Amino acid sequence: MILELARTTEAWSPGRLRRSRRRPLTIHTIPPSWVEEESGLLSFRPECGRSAVGPPRAVDGLTDCAAFDDVGAFLKHPGIDIVSICTPHPNHPAETIAAAKAGRHLVIEKPLALDRTSLRKMAAAVKAAGVSTSVCFEARWIGLFKNIKALLARNAIGKVFYGECSYFHGVGPWYGQWSWNIKKSMGGDALLTAGIHALDGLLWFMDSPVVEVSAFSNTSPDNPLQYEYDTNSVAILKFANGAIGKVATSIECRQPYLFPVLLQGDRGTIWNDQFSSLDFPGTAKDRWITIPAAMLDSGDVKDHPYSGQMEYFLDCLRNSMTPHNDIFSCAHCHEVIFAINDAIASKKVARVKEKIAGFRTANEVTDCHVAAARGARPPQNNHACGGTP
Ligand SMILES: NC(=O)c1ccc[n+]([C@@H]2O[C@H](COP(=O)([O-])OP(=O)(O)OC[C@H]3O[C@@H](n4cnc5c(N)ncnc54)[C@H](O)[C@@H]3O)[C@@H](O)[C@H]2O)c1
């Protein structure tokens, strides 16, 4: 386990933060993660990991660098503002609760928890401590998602009645976490470990919580990737506003990474980076309108927009705003997955057992797209909407 600090990219340079004339926020992670390393936010050396716990030392020119093998000691290190938790899934609840009790703000990797009880304990600890949280649903900051949110805020496809979002990415021995992720007690299930990004995307776009689900799951007959849980699932969702949807996941498929998004409304349709809308009556009937955007087409985290998520979190902390991806809002996505698991086990329609208040629909989130659509001045820091600085 490690405690380190680094900001290696321009976006995170101490100089940039100093220009704000405030004390730079200090971020440490448990443990050094390739997620963080590859995302360019934090600079770590693999040799600083659990196997090489040692005295503080400089890494990449850093002087404030230390390594710990005890969470309690780690949290006592002076000057930590934010703890980023990037451990395997079963660790997230206890580490979140400990860091919240220590008064640290939190960046928490998905999934928050593998069961309802742990999730509720985490939310209670965060609420009691009054700290801020940022759940790593970083896809919300990819260009594709930003454009879709902007189209929806402008009512380009009207009232959305159907949405689907899926995650198809084979996670085998070639992918870092596979060795522990194949275990039921560690990975959880295909949705919790990976498809959760697709479900979060769907919730982010549909503007309504899910109330009921039905679902099936399986593994291919020979289970070549040796998972202890079903690697593929498909769920049908009913939203509170009457819309319906579908989320499918496969972590054993053998194909290029695929993250399809389809949203249909009474005035048009969005299909990934293409759309069709009655707002443009001159468009050829058989042609889509395309808006070029960065797409979710890679499972490699260096292609994921963590910088947007982190810059937004800093903006929220400095301006006393509640992040739209905080633990309370993101708990709903997990509650839906728990209901999907109920549906798979019972072979019946299951209701979402919402116990943590805080889910906010897209329209309740005052992000820059919604604000701009309402004619408000966009935030000064474009990172708040995941834009380029
Ligand atoms: N948001 C995303 O797009 C995304 C992508 C990949 C991984 N993740 C998440 O990041 C987290 C880590 O996944 P990963 O792919 O980096 O896994 P990994 O196996 O590459 O790294 C896990 C790290 O945790 C350390 N570790 C193991 N047991 C530990 C313990 N008990 N205490 C402290 N450290 C321990 C390991 O030494 C290793 O450094 C998971 O929650 C995973 O779901 C998120």
Structure description:
The chain has 389 residues and is α/β, with parallel strands linked by helices. It has two domains: 3-138, NAD(P)-binding Rossmann-like Domain (Rossmann fold); 142-358, Dihydrodipicolinate Reductase, domain 2. It contains twelve helices and 15 strands. The strands form three sheets. Strands 14-13-12-11-7-10-9-8-15 form a nine-stranded mixed sheet. Strands 2-4-5-6 form a four-stranded parallel sheet, sandwiched between helices. Nicotinamide-adenine-dinucleotide (NAD) binds at residues 1, 30-31, 33-35, 49-50, 86-89, 91, 109-110, 136, 138, 176-177, 193, 301, 304.
Give the arrangement of secondary structure elements.
Elements: E1 2-3, H1 14-18, E2 27-30, H2 34-38, E3 66-67, H3 71-76, E4 82-85, H4 92-101, E5 105-108, H5 116-129, E6 133-135, H6 143-153, E7 160-168, H7 178-181, H8 184-187, H9 190-206, E8 210-218, E9 232-239, E10 244-250, E11 261-265, E12 268-271, E13 274-277, E14 289-290, H10 306-318, H11 327-346, E15 350-351, H12 368-373
Parallel strand pairs: 2-4, 4-5, 5-6, 7-10
Antiparallel strand pairs: 1-3, 7-11, 8-9, 8-15, 9-10, 11-12, 12-13, 13-14
Helix pairs in contact: 4-5, 5-11, 9-11
This protein binds nicotinamide-adenine-dinucleotide.
List the keywords.
four-stranded parallel beta sheet, disordered N terminus, globular, alpha/beta, 18% strand, binds nicotinamide-adenine-dinucleotide, 389 residues, 12 helices, disordered C terminus, Dihydrodipicolinate Reductase, domain 2, 15 strands, Rossmann fold, nine-stranded mixed beta sheet
